[in-house]
Amino acid sequence: MTLARSSGTLCQSAVKISKCNDSFIYLLSPLRSVLIEKCQRSTIILGAVETSVDVNKSEHITVIAATRRFSAQGCKSCNIHLLTPNTPLLFNTNSNITFGPYHTFYPNLEEHMYAAGLAPLPNLWDQPHVLGSSGLDDDKIFEIQKPSDFFTFTIPFQMEGKTKEIPVGLPSKYQKALNQRLQKVEDWHKLMGETSMTSDQKKLLHRTVQAKFQEWLQTTGQARLLQDLVVPQQKAEASSSLQSLDKLSLD
């Protein structure tokens, strides 16, 4: 399921997301607070959250948020990407939590951050504190994402607004990793342009690459996201462009 919301009725509201499985949820509005509990295998993208994002008893989820405070308890194998001025708090009931830098944007993000009283800096996403821990087992509770595993996240909707890039930017080592990956893509295209392969060989290579890409889409769950987005994309084409996500809900 893919669900997206950006509306006046959502602004400054307290949101509870409970028992969502295999979902992509976009709440692109300034929010007062967000509680996420008992969710599995889902990706949750939030607008600017004025007070706190609290995640409880969830597994294999990704949370992307600009928020004043963040906490998690009883969670397992989750990826958290934050823009936050405060230290993320973890209870010692968590395990395998990965923190990465805030890595997305949408056109109204800076406006929503201003409404929520959030500034791009300071950003303490990589300084989590474990409550009730001696510190000896913290590496089993959380880790900081490796730059080699880092990708930016693109919000797949057309909206109007002034934000054109990630407000806080990326830490240098993550930006360097992205640049290196982009360089590899450019090198690949250059190699393909200079290759002496025959037309049939190029077609065979193209089919092989496409097959591997489709395999990756299936194993990562991205294929489901693309399928869910077919309907809103068709609606966008029918109306020239998708100007907002107001009250958009798709199963």
UniProtKB/TrEMBL annotation:
<dbReference type="Pfam" id="PF07986">
    <property type="entry name" value="TBCC"/>
</dbReference>
<dbReference type="InterPro" id="IPR036223">
    <property type="entry name" value="CAP_C_sf"/>
</dbReference>
<keyword id="KW-0206">Cytoskeleton</keyword>
<feature type="domain" description="C-CAP/cofactor C-like">
    <location>
        <begin position="1"/>
        <end position="133"/>
    </location>
</feature>
<comment type="similarity">
    <text>Belongs to the TBCC family.</text>
</comment>
<keyword id="KW-0963">Cytoplasm</keyword>
<dbReference type="InterPro" id="IPR012945">
    <property type="entry name" value="Tubulin-bd_cofactor_C_dom"/>
</dbReference>
<dbReference type="InterPro" id="IPR039589">
    <property type="entry name" value="TBCC1"/>
</dbReference>
<dbReference type="InterPro" id="IPR017901">
    <property type="entry name" value="C-CAP_CF_C-like"/>
</dbReference>
<dbReference type="GO" id="GO:0005813">
    <property type="term" value="C:centrosome"/>
</dbReference>
<dbReference type="InterPro" id="IPR006599">
    <property type="entry name" value="CARP_motif"/>
</dbReference>
<dbReference type="InterPro" id="IPR016098">
    <property type="entry name" value="CAP/MinC_C"/>
</dbReference>
<protein>
    <recommendedName>
        <fullName>TBCC domain-containing protein 1</fullName>
    </recommendedName>
</protein>
<dbReference type="GO" id="GO:0000922">
    <property type="term" value="C:spindle pole"/>
</dbReference>
